[in-house]
Amino acid sequence: VQLQASGGGLVQPGGSLRLSCAASGFTLDYYAIGWFRQAPGKEREFVGSIYWSGDFTYYADSVKGRFTIFRDNAKNTVYLQMNSLKSEDTAVYYCAAEIHGSGSEDPPKYNYWGQGTLVTVSS
Q: Per residue in 72-82, pLDDT tens?
């Protein structure tokens, strides 16, 4: 059972990146997926989440209107599309799975975590 976040890299301010969260060993069909991030010297913070059915998404105010979460259950993958990136978006991004969940902001609610992928926004 494994979650793997990928797609991070170096991007200029104003640019875009798409992160992927792929599951192996289990199906994501009944899991809400949350995205979190942790910048150097800061605590982990909630970025956004998507309901297990994909009907609902929820975003932190800091990314609302710039980030979009969507899922492709056929590919057992959830995506985080990040547009209009800012330097303050620089962080390690993690995805997490919450069974039958609604996509909580509370990390302990999640059953599985990916290893994280680094996003650096810099000119």
A: 888 999 999 99
